[in-house]
């Protein structure tokens, strides 16, 4: 028997020795998000592979034995594990963030970290992709706390707006790879100029309040820090098509080489989006491209980004008049667009906005040592374009012309079309030096110098009558220059469970513009502003997953272009100042992660529209001495089961101006000017500042790689002006609008909107991933308005409000198909 057993073992040894096994698993980050394109390798034999779009990998055909598995991914620490292979083995690895990552230094210099004492939300590429059906960037951020979005065209394609904590886009700082995106003069960020940018974005951080020091416009409501595509080690190609309501269609083609020769990569994207819009004649024709080439050294990265967007949109930025939106006898009362209406009842076909913006970014990141790293960027943005509009019965004197006599007639007025041009250049340098001498101390020195030149001019391209206007007549020109310098130093010091945070920024602005002097002459002028923005905070770690924090930050914000050009040195508004107090609690666990944040934002000289006319006759923004925003924010995500999760957020706030004097222009029955009517208010509500904003997303995965999400958004009442809808004492309401609630009530009614999102992903031998998606917006077809404006005056002792609203689309859908190779 013993001899038989020995002989059997001898016969089986060659079979056992030749057995083939595999190592497989999934590579994720610490949050459990898949890392596609991560490199997984073993030695002896030397084999490497890359994870697929779901972060999965497999190395097959291995004999039994001991192997060292090495996993690497850009931005994460290299992880090595040794295993003994006796059969098929599953090895899942969660990578941790690298202390220094060449491509991360640029954006982390202006970002909040895990223990930063400020309120922020991080969105990964996966978060963005699941909602990227072609709507503009603000709509992809709609489920972050304290955010309210709106669309001029009503369906999220074309001109869109975003407010954070009630502050509009001119007070929200936006950077792309640390480079300012806000327009230097108007200070707004126009994402329409970069359509489908989300398809080339790797991640976004949204900060609320003053936040950390950043480059460009001051953050008075929040900041949006965007990082575009980073390294992918494997080649890829993707085709995405979306189609839906209002003839909306989006086509995107993306591809990349992966890492070539261990050092080079090139990625590219080409996009087109077209939509008729929910509002009449609110069409959009948008095109864009993005190309990025990079060289990866042992401890450095050099990347060149070139991207551009071209937009042509029919103007819908005046909204729908209250006299129309409330009249149900008009078939299209909620989609009416009056812009471009000509005397014969037709519409001017070229009542459009045309603009192109080209961006060039050269980003260099260098790991100088284990303790020191540097990042720098050179950038240049070229923007040019115009909006064209039809003007009915325009006075030629308003265009610097003398009325023309033809026979017995004097032509003082004529129908005409004009183009208002903007041709600008924006260029500069940003930098950051990050130093971490000890594990509990890190220091950052950063800043930027940027310069802007802008030419504003107008041409008359058509007149109905011969009014003596030569072809392409230029009737005005305003050349402006602006330079913006800032430098900041930030430090974090960890002492046991306590982290101390300090951030100091100096910013200097020089602005040259064409404006009115004290004698009402329009001459070139300039203004110089110096701002000091200190910030300090403390974080206490209760344990690995829980911390509490508190911070104080100062922000300063300069007036915009119109504030300067439509005023004299006597009436010119002052810069705004904000003192921001924040405190909160954060938790991160396997089942629940979220937080609560309290804020108190105290403004000095906040700029608001008061209805008053300044000394040059323009309705301008004026400073109010004291105003504030105070509130509490909740956000969290709970994993109810492996298939079911619920994410929700809510902001409850009070937003007040302590003392306000509002002036209303007044006229007698013959429309001769009278002294203005003045209203005084105590503790009135700030316009466009809802007291409750809430969002919810319930996601369920009934099958593998498939999900259903029910998405909800609630926004409470918002006032269109700062009067809390209180009319002047002794002034009657115009009888012809007394029965029109849209005219009498200068506010946006509260709305509760629900969407449904479906998605399913699968693969074939030829296609790595096939993704199909369906987004049904406003599934219950709620009629609501998300934005508006009001222009009141007193005519013959009667108050007349000219109100405009932006209705949003009722039930509509977008369906997508994504192919990944």
Automatic annotation (TrEMBL):
Tell me the protein's name.
TonB-dependent receptor
Entry keyword set: Cell outer membrane, Ion transport, Iron, Iron transport, Membrane, Receptor, Signal, TonB box, Transmembrane, Transmembrane beta strand, Transport
* Gene3D superfamilies, sorted: Carboxypeptidase-like, regulatory domain, TonB-dependent receptor, beta-barrel domain, TonB-dependent receptor, plug domain
Q: Which residues form the TonB-dependent receptor plug domain?
A: 114-222
Recorded topology in the membrane? Multi-pass membrane protein
What organism is this sequence from?
Mucilaginibacter aquariorum
- Signal peptide from the UniProt entry: 1-19
Please name the InterPro entries in this protein's record: Beta-barrel_TonB, Beta-barrel_TonB_sf, CarboxyPept-like_regulatory, Plug_dom, Plug_dom_sf, TonB-dep_rcpt-like
What PANTHER family does the record tag this protein with? FERRICHROME IRON RECEPTOR-RELATED, FERRICHROME OUTER MEMBRANE TRANSPORTER_PHAGE RECEPTOR
């Amino acid at each position: 028997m013993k001899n038989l057993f020995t002989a059997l073992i001898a016969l089986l040894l060659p079979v056992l020795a030749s057995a083939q096994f595999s190592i497989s698993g999934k590579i994720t980050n610490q949050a459990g998000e898949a890392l596609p394109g991560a490199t997984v390798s073993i030695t002896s034999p030397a084999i490497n592979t890359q994870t697929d779009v779901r972060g999965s990998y497999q190395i097959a055909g291995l004999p039994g034995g001991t192997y060292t598995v090495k996993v690497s991914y850009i931005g994460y620490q290299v992880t090595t594990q040794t295993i003994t292979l006796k059969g098929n083995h599953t090895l899942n690895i969660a990578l941790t963030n690298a202390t220094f990552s060449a491509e991360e230094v640029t954006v982390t210099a202006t970002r909040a970290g895990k223990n930063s004492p400020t309120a922020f939300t991080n969105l990964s590429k996966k978060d963005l992709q699941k909602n990227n059906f072609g709507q503009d960037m603000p709509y992809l951020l709609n489920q972050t706390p304290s955010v309210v979005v709106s669309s001029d065209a009503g369906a999220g394609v074309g001109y869109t707006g975003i407010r954070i904590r009630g502050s509009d886009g001119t007070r929200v700082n936006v950077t792309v790879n640390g480079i300012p995106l806000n327009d230097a003069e108007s200070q707004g960020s126009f994402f329409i100029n970069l359509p489908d940018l989300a398809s080339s974005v790797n991640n976004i951080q949204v900060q609320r309040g003053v936040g950390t020091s950043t480059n460009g416009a001051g953050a008075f409501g929040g900041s949006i820090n965007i990082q575009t595509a980073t390294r992918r080690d494997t080649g890829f190609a993707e085709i995405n098509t979306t189609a839906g309501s209002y003839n909306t269609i989006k086509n995107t083609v993306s591809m990349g080489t992966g890492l070539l020769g261990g050092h080079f990569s090139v990625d590219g994207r080409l996009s087109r989006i077209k939509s008729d819009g929910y509002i009449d004649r609110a069409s959009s024709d948008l095109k864009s491209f993005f190309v990025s080439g990079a060289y990866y050294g042992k401890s450095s990265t050099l990347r060149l980004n070139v991207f551009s967007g071209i937009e042509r949109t029919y103007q819908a930025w005046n909204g729908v008049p209250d006299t129309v939106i409330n009249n149900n006898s008009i078939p299209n009362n909620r989609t009416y667009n009056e812009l471009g209406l000509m005397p014969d009842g037709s519409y001017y076909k070229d009542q459009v906005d045309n603009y192109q913006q080209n961006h060039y970014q050269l980003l260099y990141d260098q790991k100088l040592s284990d303790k020191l790293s540097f990042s720098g960027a050179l950038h240049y943005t070229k923007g040019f374009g115009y909006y064209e509009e039809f003007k009915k019965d325009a006075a030629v004197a308003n265009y610097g012309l003398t009325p023309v006599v033809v026979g017995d007639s004097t032509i003082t007025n004529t129908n005409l079309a004009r183009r208002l041009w903007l041709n600008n250049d924006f260029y500069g340098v940003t930098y950051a030096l990050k130093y971490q001498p000890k594990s509990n101390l890190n220091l950052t020195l950063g800043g930027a110098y940027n310069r802007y030149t802008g030419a504003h001019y107008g041409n008359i391209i058509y007149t109905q009558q011969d009014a003596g206007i030569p072809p392409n007549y230029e009737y005005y020109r305003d050349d402006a220059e602006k330079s913006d310098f800032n430098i900041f130093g930030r430090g974090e010091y960890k002492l046991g469970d306590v982290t101390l945070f300090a951030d100091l920024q100096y910013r200097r602005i020089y602005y040259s513009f064409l404006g009115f002097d004290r004698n009402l002459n329009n001459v070139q002028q300039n203004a110089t502003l110096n701002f000091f923005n200190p910030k300090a905070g403390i974080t206490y770690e209760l344990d690995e997953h829980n911390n509490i924090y508190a911070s104080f930050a100062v922000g300063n914000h300069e007036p915009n272009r119109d504030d300067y050009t439509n005023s004299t040195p006597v009436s010119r508004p002052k810069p705004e100042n904000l003192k921001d107090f924040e405190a909160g609690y954060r938790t991160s666990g396997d089942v629940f992660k979220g937080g609560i944040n309290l804020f108190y934002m105290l403004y000095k000289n906040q700029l608001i529209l008061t209805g008053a006319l300044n000394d040059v006759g323009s309705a301008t923004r004026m400073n109010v001495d004291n105003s504030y925003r105070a509130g509490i924010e909740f956000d969290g995500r709970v994993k109810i089961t492996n298939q079911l999760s619920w994410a929700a957020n809510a902001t409850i706030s009070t937003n007040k101006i302590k003392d306000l004097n509002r002036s209303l222009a007044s006229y007698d029955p013959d429309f001769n000017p009278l002294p203005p009517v003045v209203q005084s208010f105590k503790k009135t509500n700030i316009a466009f500042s809802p007291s409750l904003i809430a969002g919810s997303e319930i996601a369920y995965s009934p099958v593998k790689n498939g999900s259903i999400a029910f998405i909800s958004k609630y926004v409470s009442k918002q006032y269109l002006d700062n009067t809390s809808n209180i009319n002047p004492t002794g002034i009657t309401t115009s009888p012809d609008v007394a029965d029109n609630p849209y005219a009498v009530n200068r506010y946006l009614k509260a709305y509760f909107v629900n969407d449904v999102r479906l998605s399913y992903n699968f693969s074939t031998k030829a296609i790595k991933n096939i993704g199909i998606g369906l987004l049904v917006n406003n599934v219950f077809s709620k009629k609501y308005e998300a934005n508006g404006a009001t222009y009141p005056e007193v005519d013959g002792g009667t108050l007349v409000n000219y109100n405009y609203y932006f209705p949003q689309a009722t039930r509509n859908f977008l369906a997508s198909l994504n192919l990944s190779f």
